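Exam review. A common question shows you a sequence with its structure tokens and asks you to describe the fold in words. Practice with the pair below. Do the first one on your own.
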Amino acid sequence: MAVVPERHVLVCTADHCCKQGGKKLCKAFKEAVDDRGLKRKVKVLEVDCLGQCGHGPLAVVYPDAVWYAGLE
């Protein structure tokens, strides 16, 4: 039976955010989730664009729909 994560962290890695560190941010989120033993509860995903160019790097957490912008 597949485990459905409680949270999804979508990290923008589109060109604009990527230049601002989107891929580095995604890697850091994945490492933090792994270090804390949360891989079954939290899924970190790279997404192409979240439509908020200029506010990156950014991430959104679902199902809470909480946005975080200007992450470093």
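Now try the second one, then compare your answer with the model answer below.
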Amino acid sequence: FLMDFERLINFLPQRLQQPLPREIAWQPMIPPSYDQNRYRQYDVSNARKAAVMALFYPDNDLAATNNGGRTAKLVYIKRTEDQYVHSGQIGFPGGRFEPTDTDLFATALRETHEEIDVKPNQITVIGSLSEIYIQPSNSLVLPVVGFASEAPNFLPNSKEVAQIIETDLNWLQNPANLQKKQMYRSSKDTAIEVPFYNLHGHTLWGATALMTAELLYLLR
């Protein structure tokens, strides 16, 4: 399918109010060799709260969809190479909850502003996906979903963001871009087969791939 931007923002807020598919949607993106509790840790009392933003917006430069609407796009970032646990990885803009944040929606909005220069008043928050526990950083992450009415002028924060990666739903839905490859698992000195999205030549895997899979599941 190819859902245009207008149909998406009319459909998705209602769907996000219903029960979320969570593990059914996640399953294809979890490596078979992983502990299946890796992303659903039950004792999260000591986990750090965090939030990311899955931000949709229309692409006015692409040809209209078959329905005559504007193509819906989604933005990811590649993090800078540094000493932190998610160094160099592909993800949504976001970060840790701060005491000044009123809630995790505010965290996602603040971090999106700080990392890619999209102001909170440019984003309409429409809900959230399933929380995901991320073991390496001991974080419980809420994926917030929002949209901008027009394509933003992204400006990456060079200290945190190495590259901005824009894509459309058609690319993510293409079965040819859901792939697997061997990746080195340093903790056990072994290579494992990992499912990932080929995001215009970038490897989108792990927790962000699970979030993406849930989004696509909802839209199907």
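Model answer, second protein: The longest strand covers residues 48-59. The chain has five helices and eleven strands. Full marks require stating both points clearly.
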